[in-house]
């Protein structure tokens, strides 16, 4: 694992073969520092990295865009976006074909839908407002190089980036493909139980990408 910061963007780089899972938070949502503490208290293996995942909407509960959790639970609700997933060989990939559904990823360990696609070109799903991509907001994204996964999270307001600015930065650090995830007050990057990015009004989220230590031997 390698961590670094450039301006207001925090980066973590891990191998694409590193154990990365998609975990559900509590049904009522959860701050990721609290999630780390809960997993530790329950005696579960604790991840070295937690980062918020995809978009959700509160509507008397919550509804979340299409995903398949590591435990096999599937949420079949598409926003017409793009999918980040871990394939049958354990490699993290980003699918660049717009309009797939979670049913197309039944063989994957996990899959999560989001938008806009940042690289190789900026493409948004119809459900994402143009202003969300064009305005400066705190951002969360995942980018891929030939060998590594790069997690990117900006500091909270008043810092922020447009999607085009974030895409440019991810290209500069070596990514050839990248996907925007939920941002704003959802943007949270937790390393060894401590939130790294500054976020003054964070909100509870409903899914997290979790990176675990590689087991040797």
TrEMBL record:
<dbReference type="GO" id="GO:0016798">
    <property type="term" value="F:hydrolase activity, acting on glycosyl bonds"/>
</dbReference>
<protein>
    <submittedName>
        <fullName>Phosphodiester glycosidase family protein</fullName>
    </submittedName>
</protein>
<dbReference type="Pfam" id="PF09992">
    <property type="entry name" value="NAGPA"/>
</dbReference>
<dbReference type="InterPro" id="IPR018711">
    <property type="entry name" value="NAGPA"/>
</dbReference>
<keyword id="KW-0378">Hydrolase</keyword>
<feature type="domain" description="Phosphodiester glycosidase">
    <location>
        <begin position="51"/>
        <end position="211"/>
    </location>
</feature>
<keyword id="KW-0326">Glycosidase</keyword>
